[in-house]
């Protein structure tokens, strides 16, 4: 069974950009490793060990991101007024006076500080397929709470 990673077009582009940046940095890392190798005894060469480890991390990250793109399922925002991947949602938390706005994104794109909520997070799951005017109950590990959906864009 193949598991596809749902993401927005913007999330896909972010991964492509990171891959490009890492590939651009790879020759520099290889050069650092070669220079460290030329310093002599590798068993006591901390520069060599560090350079080898950093290049390994870069290669590992490239493989990981490549798999993310390979198994990506890009979801375009629907226009039916329901909360879905790619929607921007203005909500009001129970007991709050100020509404907050979040974009519903894929798991890899989620960043609460940047206003991006994963569709599979407790908040994201509760809002999916609902429309403006609905009040949903979020079942979170710390307890449940209600959220009113004010706008879906």
From TrEMBL:
Pfam families: GreA_GreB (PF01272), GreA_GreB_N (PF03449). It comes from the Bacteria. Residues 80-152 form the Transcription elongation factor GreA/GreB C-terminal domain. GO terms for molecular function: translation elongation factor activity. Residues 6-74 form the Transcription elongation factor GreA/GreB N-terminal domain. Belongs to the GreA/GreB family. This is Transcription elongation factor GreA. It comes from Lactobacillus colini. The gene is greA.
